[in-house]
Amino acid sequence: MTDPVSVIVPARNEAETIRKVVSILLGMADVGEVVVIDNGSTDDTAAQADAAGARVVSETRVGMGHAVRAGIMAAKYDWVMKVDADLDKFDTDLFARMPAARGPGIGLVKGAWHDPGDNMPMTRLLVMPAICLMFPGLGHLRAPNSGLYLFNKSLIAPDALVDDYAVDLDVMLRVHAAGAKVVEVDIGRIEHDVRDVPHYNAMAEMLLKFFLSRQNRRLTTEMVVMAQDGAEVIRHALGTIAAKAVAGGRVTIFLASDQGPDGQVLRKVLSPYPTVRVLPLAAANTFAPGANATGLRVLAPFPQADKTEVLVTAIGVHDAARDIASELLLMPVQQGDRVIAGFRPDTATENEDGLAIKREALYHLDGKVQESTPPPREVFQSYGSLPEALKPLFHSTAKRPSAG
């Protein structure tokens, strides 16, 4: 028997059809439950869904993203199928193809349908070009913005999803960035009502805004952080790390000392994000980038004569990334209240999405509320800008991680 599926159905004022929709879904193989998200209805959608056997969740904030997020968080099973409330337009027998397509390494199955009266202008003119330019690993999809799909929710942080209709793309990009495969199955034919130009204009503006918001987040550039302890990470790089985690990117943190209270603080504030791992430094010898990684950004402490192990290991990981672009950036090192001499920052990161997480970690670390908000940028020095006299020392002792 395959893993059961939770089906989530965002619904607003669907009292006339929701009962039939729920009955159809509950009769499908692999479906373990149906969750209807009553998204601010003014009719008796909730009562009709409940009477048909669905579990009803109320989400008063109107918007597809709000509804989908509430449904995912309420779902009992890891595998979640998101469908619309207009199933009367589909050949629902073909929906069984989505659970059947699950397999090793697959994290999301898109349901691709075709409409003989719709030449898909949004997909052809906006979504597909953006996908091919920004996420070429998803260029094989015919219907990347389909709102009918099945995915493994354990791969993403649902609470960080966008609020609007771009949520379906957001889920897909997060699964892809997490390193899982995204596949597609044909679920037949549908005939939608004719959409007018204002509908497409509004949709295009919303989706373009979403893609632009993802442009500088480099979701498939994986981040690896190496440090002496959690405090070093929290003070000098957590905003950057948290911003990557909130967007759904993969982050692996290796600590020479990972069991202290600062390490526990780091784990606690990053625990909502399944694409983040905090591991002992020794585990770096087996590190390998995720399957969908297109780049690697390695962060490590600025050189210290008496502490070389962390930087040496970071150089090994950086040098081992032969098939993808890799950069090595150095974090400032603090001695008392002062940054170690010689640190010359030349790279800054925008990390506004991670500031709340950094502020929380600093509170737990120092035991007091920060008098001011952490700066919205963190600074690093590129390894290539180090004086040449320092580089041979570290390269001569760097060990490449094993391919395993």
From TrEMBL:
Reported cofactor(s): Mg(2+)
Domain of life: Bacteria
UniProt cross-references to SUPFAM superfamilies, sorted A to Z: Nucleotide-diphospho-sugar transferases
Keywords, alphabetical: Glycosyltransferase, Magnesium, Transferase
Family, as annotated: Belongs to the glycosyltransferase 2 family.
Residues in Glycosyltransferase 2-like domain copies: 6-87
Protein name from the UniProt record: Glycosyl transferase family 2
Chain ranges passing through the membrane: none
Pfam families, per database record: Glycos_transf_2
Presence of the UniProt keyword Glycosyltransferase in the record: yes
GO molecular function: glycosyltransferase activity
